Amino acid sequence: MTAHPAPQNQGRRSSAFSRLLRYGFTDPSAAGRLLDAPELAAVRDDSVLLEALGATADPDLALTALVRMVEAQDPDERQQLLSTLITAKPLRDRLLGVLGASEALGDHLVRHPHDWHSLVTYEAADLHPTTPEFEAALAEGIWGERGRDRPRPDALRAAYRRCLLGIAARDVCGTTDLAETAAELADLATATVRAALEIACEEQPTDAAACRLAVVGMGKCGGRELNYVSDVDVIYVAEARDGTAEAKALQAATRLAGRLMRICSDVTAEGTIWPVDANLRPEGRNGPLVRTLNSHLAYYERWAKTWEFQALLKARPMAGDEELGKEYVAAVTPLVWQVSERENFVTDVRQMRRRVVENIPAAQVDRELKLGPGGLRDVEFAVQLLQLVHGRGDATLHSPTTLDALSALASGGYVGREDAKALDAAYRFLRTLEHRIQLYKLRRTHLMPEDAPDLRRLARSMGLRTEPVETLRKEWKWHAREVRRLHEKLFYRPLLDAVAHLEPGSTRLSAKAAGQRLEALGYADPVAALRHLEALASGVTRKAAIQRTLLPVLLAWFADSADPDAGLLNFRKVSDALGKTPWYLRLLRDEGAAAENLARVLSAGRFAPDLLLRAPEAVALLGAKDGLQPRGRAALEQEVLAAVGRAEGAEQAAAAARGVRRRELFRTAAADLIGAYGTEGHPAQADRGHAADVVGTAVSDLTAATIAGALRAAVRDQWGDTLPTRFTVIGMGRFGGRELGYGSDADVLFVHEPREGADEQEAAKAAHAVANEMRRLLQLPSADPPLPIDADLRPEGKTGPLVRTLSSYAAYYRRWSLVWEAQALLRAEPVAGDAGLGERFIELVDPLRYPVEGLGEDAVREIRRLKARMETERLPRGADPTTHTKLGRGGLSDVEWTVQLIQMQHAWARPGLRTTRTREALAAARTAGLLTTEDAQILDEAWVLASRVRNAAMLVRGRPGDTFPSDARELAAVGRYLGYEEGHVGEMLDDYRRTTRRARAVVEEIFYGAAG
After folding, report:
1. Can you tell me the mean pLDDT for 694-722?
2. DSSP state for residue 698 in the 8-state scheme
3. Using CA atoms, how far apart are residues 133 and 125, in angstroms rounded to an integer?
4. pLDDT at 385
5. Which one is predicted more confidently, 489 or 325?
6. 3-state SS of 213-276?
7. What end-to-end distance do the CA atoms of the chain give, in Å?
8. What pLDDT digit, counting tens, does each position of 177-235 carry?
9. Which of 145, 564, 696, 891 could form a disulfide linkage to 739, CB 3.0–4.6 angstroms apart?
10. By the 8 A CB rule, do 736 and 668 touch?
C-alpha cells in the first residue's frame, strides 16, 4: 500500500511555495531546499531576510550565494554574520544587494569569507571614498596583516576585489549615482596602478633607481568615468635620473611598465584585475612602450593623427612621478585645443565613428550598448567633438568627464539645455545598464543579454519590477532612439537658435561660435550657411516651424557629404519653390526616408539638384513607395506618346517628351546617388556592376522613349498619323548596348522603306525631313538637358546621306562596308519607329557583324591597327592616359574592342555572344571558354569602374567628362559616389590605376596578342 503525505504537510509546502513566488524567487522549490539548509536554521523563517532577498535583482542568485558564503564561515563567525544580517539593515541591503547582482563578487565572498566585514561600517567616510582611501585599503591588504603570507600581486587582487565590493554595494543600494560610481571605479584603478607600480619597484629596485616613470591615465580612467570591467588606458613617460644614460633609463622604465601591466592583467588563483592598455601611445602597438617627454612632443607635433589628440583630452597624471606626469599633461594640453584647426578634423572624427560601427559584427549591432547606433559612443563622440571645436576659446569646456563636459556645453549655450538634460538622462541609463551587465560576472562586455533570466535580473537591478523584461527592452530602445535623435540636434539645434532667436533671454551661440562650428562640420562658407539657415528657420509660419524641426538632421546629412554648402543652398532653393505646397512639407515631415533621400541628392553634386530645381514637384518621388524604381521602356514610351498626343504642335510635343525625360532622369540619378551613398535604413549598394547596369538600362530606355516621342511629333506635325515611308531608328554604340551614361550622346542610324505605292523620292524627302526635325526638336534651347542625336556611324559617315532605305544599306554593306563598320554594327538595336523594319535591318546586318568562320587575319590586323591609331591620335592633348575613362589604359575602349573582337571571331558559332551589351558578352565569352574566369573578371571590373567614374563626373559637375575632376571638392564627391570616405581620394585614384592597369595587361594578351 502506497503511503501518501498528509494533506496538512502538502498545504504547508504549497503555502511556502506561493510565499517564495511572491518574494520574487523563480525556482521556489530550490529556494525552499536552500532555506532548509542547517546553516540557515536560525533565520530561515525570518520575514526580514525573505523581504530583503526579494528586494534584490535576483533572489535565487542571492540566496544561493548566501548559503555558500555561510557554509564557508567558521562556526562562531557564521552566527555573527547571520545575527548582523538580521539586525543591521545597512549590511543586509549591501550584502544581499551585491549577492543578487554579482555572481563574481559572491564567489569572492565565498573564497574570502571574512570580507563581508568591509560592508558593515556605514560612516560618512565610507560613503564616498576617493583615491587616498583606496590606497590605504590596498596597502593594508598588500603589506599589512591580510597580505603577510601571500605573493604581493595576489594580495593586490584580493584587496582590489574587497574595495570593489564596497563600490558595488553603494551602487546597487543607490547610495551613489552613476557618476559617483564611475569616479570611484577610476579612483580605485588609480590606487591599484600605483600599488602595482610600487610592487614592481620593490621587485626591481635597480630599475626604479634609474628612471623617473610617470603613468598618465587616458580614456575612461583618465576622465574618472570608468566601468566595472574595462581596459585601463595609460601612456608612459620617463626621464633618466641623474647619472643614468637616457637609453638605460628608458630600458629600466620599460621593464617597470611591463611588470606593472602583468601584475594587473595576469590570471592567478585570485583571478585578474583588468588589462592595462598602452595602445593609445604614439605609434600604438608598433611604437616603444615608454618615451621621454620630448619624444612624445616631437611625435605629436609632427605625426599624430586627429584621434590621438581627441584621446589626449582625457589625459591626467595617475601614478609614478607626479611632477613628470603634470609636465606631460601641461605640454600636450595646448595641442589638444588646437586640433580643431587641423585640415579634415571633423572628417577624421566622423570616419572614426563610422569605422567603429562598421567593425561591429552584424549579429551584434542590435545588442551593442556602447558602439552601436544610439549607443554610448555616440554621446561621447558628440560631446568630445563639441569640446574640441569650442574649447579652444572657452576653458570651461576642458573637462575630461563626459557628463561634466555636457553640462558645461549647455551652460555656455553650445548645446540646448533641454537637449543636454535629455542626453544626460539617456547616457546615465545606458551606462548604468552597462555597469549592471558587467557586474554580474565581472567580465568586459557591452552586449545586452538575450536569455530571459539574465534580462529579468538586469531589469530588476535597474528598479523595474512590473513586467521587467518587456519594460527593460522598451526603455532601452527608447533611450537609444533619444540618443540618435539628440545626436544630430546637439550639433545643429544651437545653430538654428543662433539665427532664429527662438528663446529670448537664453544663452545662444555667438555668430563667431556658430561660424566656427559650421566650419568644423565641413561648411566652406559658414557666413553664407548661416544666412541660409536664417532664411529657412526664422519666422512663425508653419513652414518655418517644420523646417526648424527638419534642419538639424538635414544639416547632419549635408555635413556627411562632400559638399555641405551646396546641399544647404539647394535645400533653400527647393524650399523656396515648394515651401507653400502642403504636400511638400507633409512629405518631409512624415516620410522619414524622403528627408534623408532629399539631403543625399541635394548635396551629392549638380546634376540631380539641377533637374529637381527645374521641376521641384519631382521631390515627391523620394517618398513614394516605388518612387526610385526605374520604369521599363514600354511604360515610358506609352507615357511619352500620350503626352505628345495631347500637345499642340511639334515643339510643345517635344517639350512634353523632354519633360518626362527630365523627371525620369532625376528618378534614375536620385536612386543611383542614394544607392551609392546608402541611408540609415539601407546600406550602400554592394553590387557595383548591377548599379551600373541599372543606370545604363534606365537612361537608354528613357532615351529610346524620348526619341519615339520626337518621332511621333515630327511625323504628326506634317503628315498626320501616317508617313509615306516606314521609318525606324537603330540605336548604336552605348545606346544600342543599353549602356548610356548620364552625359552620353545617342548614336543612331535612320532607316526608311517607302510604303507600297508611295513615290520613292517623296518618301526619301519625308524621311530626311523627319530625321532632321527630330534632331531639331530634341536640341531646342530649353531648361531641360539636351539630347544630342549623333548619326556619324552611318555609311560614309558625315558625308553620306542622313537616312537610307533598307535596300540602300544592303547595297552599301554588300559592296563597300569596312571592317570598322561591321564592328560598329555589333551594338545595333532598334529603339524606335517601325518594329518590323527594325527587325529586317537586324537580319540584314547579322551576317556582317557575326561573319561565318570569324574574321580573317587581314581584318584582325586592321582592327588592331585602327585601335592603336585611335590610342595615339584621339586621346585629348594633356590628358592622363592612366585615368582617362574612355580612351585611357584599360578603360572603356580597351575592354569594348577586346570583347567586340571576340564577338566577331566567335559569335557565328556561339549564340551567347550575340548581344549588344558588353558585360553580357564578357560573361558569354567566359562561359564559352574564350576568356578565363580571372581575365573576364578583370575586364568586367575595369569596365564597370570606368563607367561609374563617367557617371560620377556628370552627377557631380553637371556636365559630361571622361576624366576625374581636378577640383578637390568635386573629386571628393566622386570618391563618395564610388564608396570612398572623405580623405581617401588618393586611394581611389590608386585603385583606379591598379584596376585599369590589370585590364590593360589582359587587353595586350587577348586583343593584341594571339587573338587571331
Report:
1. 94
2. H
3. 9
4. 84
5. 325
6. EEEEECHHHHCCCCCCCCCEEEEEEEEECCCCCHHHHHHHHHHHHHHHHHHHHCCECCECCCCE
7. 101
8. 999 999 999 999 999 999 999 999 999 999 999 999 999 999 999 999 999 999 999 99
9. 696
10. no
> DSSP letter string over 467-497?
SHHHHHHHHHHHHHHHHHHHHHHHHHHHHHH
- Give the strand pairing for 725-731 and 290-291: unpaired
DSSP state of 401: S
The CA-atom distances, in angstroms, between 240 and each of 197, 245, 247, 292, 541 are 17, 7, 8, 9, 69
Query: Grid coordinates 533641454 are at which residue?
Result: 418
Amino acid symbol at 202: E
CB atoms within 10 A of CB 469: 17
Name the DSSP class of 981: P
Please name the amino acid found at residue 779. Q
Burial class (CB in 10 A: 0-12, 13-18, 19+), 195: buried
- Kindly report, residue by residue over 793-820, the tens digit of the pLDDT: 999 888 999 999 999 999 999 998 889 9
Per-residue DSSP letters for 410-462? HHTTSS-HHHHHHHHHHHHHHHHHHHHHHHHHT----BPP-SHHHHHHHHHHT
Q: How many helices (H) and strands (E) in the chain?
A: 44, 10
The pLDDT value recorded for residue 484 is 81
Q: What is the mean pLDDT of residues 31-56?
A: 88
Which range has the worst mean pLDDT, 217-221, 504-508, 838-842?
504-508
| The pLDDT value given to residue 974 | 95
What mean pLDDT comes out for the span 547-558?
83
Asked whether 323 and 289 are in contact (CB, 8 A), the reply is no
C-alpha cell at 912: 551567347
530, containing H or E segment: helix 526-537
- Cell numbers 549607443 correspond to what residue? 375
Give residue 994's identity as a one-letter amino acid code.
R
Say if residues 282 and 300 touch (Cβ distance below 8 Å). yes
CA-CA distance, 881 to 888, in Å (whole number)?
Answer: 4
Q: Are residues 86 and 422 in contact, defined by beta-carbon separation less than 8 angstroms?
A: no
User: What DSSP state is assigned to residue 368?
Assistant: B
Q: Between residues 912 and 496, which one has the greater pLDDT? A: 912
Return the HEC string of 105-141: HHHHHHHCCCHHHHHCCCCHHHHCCCHHHHHHHHHHH
Q: Note the Cα 815 to chain centre separation in Å.
A: 61
